[in-house]
Amino acid sequence: MIEVKVLWNPWRYEYVKSTTKPQSGKECLFCRLQGLSDEEALIVHRGRHFYVVLNAYPYNTGHLMIAPYNHVAEPTELREEELLELTLLINKSLIALRKALMAEGFNIGSNIGRAAGAGVPEHFHVHVVPRWVGDANFLAVISGVKTLPMGLREAYELIKKSWVESA
Ligand SMILES: [Zn+2]
């Protein structure tokens, strides 16, 4: 199944985007996504300085990304007020993913610079990836090897609902 195939290439999509187009302003994935409708872009939440979006090519079901509206490359370029919002949005992501998908653990992280493996090095973003004990079993289920596929759209609706409910 395609889901299994992309699982081990977590940020492949961003990588492909970044190598096929020069990245600046409107050409940048994270600048473009924020200009689309929530449903088109799979945006879960729009905050004051950041938005939260479901990765369309996820490492795991419910893989969220938190990005500033501003085209800045790293957190050293963010103000205190922005860093505070980022931390609150990470917490909010954990709460929503637990509620929506019964996530049991999380990987939270960011790749700063191409040397670190960043797919879109010029627009800072934080990944929040939900994990389950025995992920492999869960993924076998969601990838359709068993009988319960969960599509991106379905995951999006569940997470967005949980996000709003835990506001
Ligand atoms: Zn950008």
Topology diagram in text:
Elements lengths: L1 H6 L4 H9 L8 H5 L4 H4 L1 E4 L3 E5 L9 E5 L11 H22 L3 E5 L16 E6 L3 H8 L9 H14 L2
Antiparallel strand pairs: 1-2, 2-3, 3-5, 4-5
Helix pairs in contact: 5-7
Order of helices and strands: HHHHEEEHEEHH
Overall 3D form: globular
Mean pLDDT: 83
Which percent band covers the strand fraction? 5-15%
Would you tell me the structural class of the helices and strands?
Answer: alpha+beta
Bound molecules: zinc ion
Compute the number of strand runs: 5
SS summary, helix count? 7
CATH fold-level topology: HIT family, subunit A
How far apart are the first and last residues' alpha carbons, in Å?
35 Å
What is the alpha-carbon Rg in Å? 15 Å
Helix amount: 40-55%
Q: Name the CATH homologous superfamily.
A: HIT-like
CATH domain class name: Alpha Beta
Main pleated sheet:
5 strands, antiparallel
Number of domain units: 1
Which sequence of strands runs across the widest sheet?
1-2-3-5-4
| Poorly predicted spans | 1-23, 145-149
Explain what the structure shows.
The chain is α+β, with helices and mostly antiparallel strands and 167 residues long. The chain has one domain: HIT family, subunit A, CATH 3.30.428.10. It contains 7 helices and 5 strands, in the order ααααβββαββαα. The protein has a 5-stranded antiparallel beta sheet. The chain binds zinc ion. Zinc ion binds next to helix 3.
